[in-house]
Known about the structure:
Chain A is mainly alpha-helical. Chain A has helices at residues 2-19, 83-95, 145-179, 188-217, 222-240, 242-263, 282-287, 292-295, 305-345, 347-352, 365-398, 411-448, 453-482, 485-506, 516-529, 540-571, 584-608, 626-642, 659-697, 702-709, 731-740, 742-753, 763-777; strands at 22-29, 32-39, 53-61, 69-77, 99-100, 116-122, 125-126, 615-616, 622-623, 648-651, 654-657.
Amino acid sequence: MQKIFSKILISVILVGIFLMPIGGVVGIKNEKLVVEIEINQAIAQSEQEPIWHFQVTKTEFHPNPNINSITTTIFFTSVNKPKASCDAERTVAESNPSYNVPGLTIGPCTSKDGDLVSSTFSNVQDSNGKKIEADPGFGCRLLNLDNCFAALLYFALYKPAAFFAELSARFLDYFMYYSISSKAYDNIFMSKAWGAVRDIANIFFIVALLFVAIKTILGMNVSGNKKMIGTIIIVALFINFSLFTTQVIVDASNILAKIFYHNITPKNENGVMTASKGEKSITVQVASIFDPQEVMGGPPGDENEGTWIIVALVSIIISIFMIFIFLSVAFLFIGRVVELWVAMIFSPIAFASKTISGKIPGFGWDEWLSGLLKSAFLAPIFIFFLYIVVLLGGLISSAGLTEKAGSTSEGLEWAMNVIIPFAITFLLLYQSKKIAQDYSGKVGKAIAGGATALAGLALGGAALGTAFAGRQVMGGLAAKASRSDNAMHHGNALMDHDKTVQDWKSKGSIGNKPKFEDTWANYKTEQAAKNVTVKDKLNPWEKLGGNVNFSQMKSGKINTARHEVDELKKEIGRENTSDANLSGADEKLMKENFTRKKRGDIETKIKRGDKDTELTTSSNSKVLGESKFRQVEREYLVKEAMKDSNNTEMKKGKKVLTAEAAQQVNMNLNVKFDEELKKQFDKLAASKFEKTVAESKQSVGVGGALMAKSTSGSYDVRNISQLTADKRDGLGMKATAGLISAVAMGIRMGMKKGIGAEHGTSSKDFATDIKNLVGGALKDIKIDVSVPSGGGEVKGKASGGGHGGGH
Amino acid sequence: MDKTQLQQKIREYYLKLPASAQASFSSLTWVETLNGVFSKYLILSEDQKQEIITETMLVLLGIIHLEEYENKILNGLGVEKEVSYKILVDIDKAILVDLRNDLTEVFNKNVAEATEEDGDGKESEEIYHKDLLENINFITSGGKNT
C-alpha cells in the first residue's frame, strides 16, 4: 500500500513538474472573454516593476567624534504605480522622515527606476528635531586605553568582518539566483563543448554500425544483428538529443526551485519590500530574523566602553558565522552550476555508455544520471528549506524573541535576545544545507533506480517533523487517551475480537474471518443491555487509547500465561524445554498440576454461576450457579421420589415425602451436584489449560509491545532496547528485541569467552584477537576498496582476509 | 556464542552494512583508533577497554542503536561521567562522525527487516495496528486530521 502511495505521489510530482511551466488564466478584459496561457520559462523572468518607496536605508556615523556628520543614503525605487500614487507616497515620506536632513530635497516622481540620492549631510536631526550625535564612543587617548581597544575592535575587526559578511551575503544572493536561472546553462561554450563530446560519442555509433555490418557479412548471429541495429539507432537518437534531455531536467528543477524562491517574502538588496520576480536578497530576509543592524545599536541604556566592547564582540562573532554559512551555501550553488555544466557536456558519453556492457569510469550512465539529479534537485530542496527557515524566522520575530529597536532589555537579557534568534537561524540554515545535500543525493539515486525517494523529497520535511513530534507526544498522549471511557470500551471490544479470532483459528479458520465491526456491534448491544451507552463512531483519540488498553491487556495476559506455563514446566522438571519438545506424558502431568492448582478458582466460578459455567440438571435444564442448580434439581428429585408411594406419607392432609425419602433426596442432590461440578470442572479446566498454553504461545509483537509501553515511555523504535523477548515470541519480536538483547548479548558474552582472549587480558591482545576474529569472519567477502571510508581516521584500504588467521 | 558463531554473526551483519560503513569496519583502523583513545585515559581498566571495543563493534555493525551505544559508554562503564563523556566525544570524532547516518539507517533497516519477518505476530496485531497510522496522523496534525 505504501509503495503504491509512493508511486502515485511520484507520478503527481513529476507531472506537476512538467506542467508547471504552463499556467492558464481565464478572465474578462475590456468586456471580452480572454484566455491567457502563461509560459514560465526559467530563462525569461518577467520583471514586474517595483513600487515607489522612500526610505532611509543606511545611516553611518562618522567614527571621528569631532566630525558631527552623518552619511544618509536614500533610495528611491520605482515604478508600477501611477504618478499620482507616487506623488502621494512621496508626500508621506517627506512629511514623516526617518531623519530630518536640512537642505535635502526629494525630487519629483519620474518613471525611471532606482533614482538614488546619496550624500553626506551635517546637522542631521531625528524626527523630533534632536541633533543626532555621531560619536560612537571612541576617544582614544593615552590615559583611556579602553577607548583605544574599542576603536581597534571597531576598525580592525568589526568593520572588516561586517564588510566580508555583506560581501558573502551578496555573493550568496547572486549565486543562488544565478544557479536557478536558465541563463547559467545557456551559453556558447556549453553548446560547443557538448557538440564536441557529441561528435566523439557519435564515433561509437559509427563503430557499432561497422561492427554489425561485419558480423552480417560474416553471417554471425544475423537475427541478433537486426535487434542490435535497432538499439544502436535509438541510442544514436538519444545521443543527439542528450543536451535537450538534460536541460529539461535542469529546467524542471530550476522552475521548482523558483516556486519557493519567489515565495520567500521579497526584499531587494536594500531590504526594501518589492514585488520583483528577478534577483532578490534572500540573505536580507534571513538576516532580518536576528537583525544584525540592531545589534551594533547595543543594549539601550548602556553606553560605557565595556558594554560597547561586548556588543562589538557579539557583532563580530555573528558576522564571522554569517560569512561562514553564506559562503558555504554560495559554494554549494556554484558547485551545482559546475556539476550541471559537466553533466550537460558529457551527456552524450553517458547515453552512449548505455550501449556497451562495460562501465566508463566517471561517465557511466548510472553515475551520470545520479550526479545530474543530485545536483539539479539540490536547489529546490535547499530553497524549500530556506523558505521554511524564513517562515520560522517570521514566527521568531512575531514571538518577540528578537532584539528590536525600542527594546528595553539590558545586559545578559539583551545578549540572549540577540544570540538565540541568531543561533536558531544559523542552525536551521546549516541543517537545511545538510538535509538538501542528503536528500538530493537520495533523490538522484532513487530516480535513477526507478524507486520511490521522490516521495521522500516531497514528504521529507514533514516526515522529519512528524517522526520527532510523534515520538515526543505519543507517550503522554497515549496515557491520557487510554483513560477515557470510550477508550476502555474500544480496548474491551478489541479483546473480545481477539478472542473471537483466536477461537476461529483454533477451529481451523473455517468460514469468513470474524470482522471487528461485528464484534463492535455486539459489544455495544451488550453494553446497552447494561444501560451503558457507547458512541457509534469513536474519534482517533479514543481509538488510540483503546489500542493502548488492548495492547496492555493482551500483553499482560500473554505474559501471565507464559509465566504459568513456565511454572508448570518447572514443577515437572522440564524447565527451559520448548513447547515443541514436550512429550505427551509431560503435557499430561502439566495439565494435572494445572487442574489441581486451579480447582479452587474454577469451582468457585461454577458455584457462583459465572459466564460459560452452565450446569446441566437431570431434567436437562441448563442453569448457572449452585443455588439455582440445587433448586431445579431438588424439584426434579422430589417429583421423582413422590412417584413412589413408599416414599410418601400424609401429613395434615397433604402428601409429603417421608423423612428417610427427604434425606435420600438431599443425598442424591449432593451426589448429582458433585458429579455435575466435576464434569463441568474437568471441561473448564481442560479448556482453560489449552487456552493458557495457546496464549503463552501467542506473540505480543513488536508493535504491540511498543504500544503497551507507550504510556510509560515514548513510542519510539529505540524503546526496543527496553523490551525483552520471550522465547515464544514471534521471530520479529525475537529478532527485534534480540538486536539488542539476544544478538548483542550473545556477541558480548562471546567476545568475553570465545575469541581467544581471556577476560582481563591486555587490551592490545584483545585488539589483536578482535582483528583476527573480524578478519576470519570477512575472509571470503570481496571488499570494495574504492569506497571512501566513513570513519575519521579510517583510510579505507581494507583487504579481504588480510586480518584473517589465528593468532 | 563460540568463535565460529561470532564470526557468522559478524559476517551476517557486515553484509547488511552500506559500502562506506563496510569499508570502515573491515579496515579495522577503528580498533587502532580506540587503542589511541585508551592511551589518553589511563584510568580505564582492561575490562572497560574491552567493553568499549565490543560495544563499538556492535554499533559499527548496526546491531545496536547509536543512542544505546552512547548510553552504554556514558553510563555503563563505571567511570566518572565527565571522563566517559570525553571518551565518547573522542570516539565519535575519530570513528563515528561520518558514519552516524549510515549506522542509524542500517540499524533501522535491521529492525524493519526483523519486523517484516514476524509472520506470527502480524496476524494478531493486524486489528489494533489498523488505526495506528490514523492515530499518529491525528496527533501530529494537532488534532485536525479527524
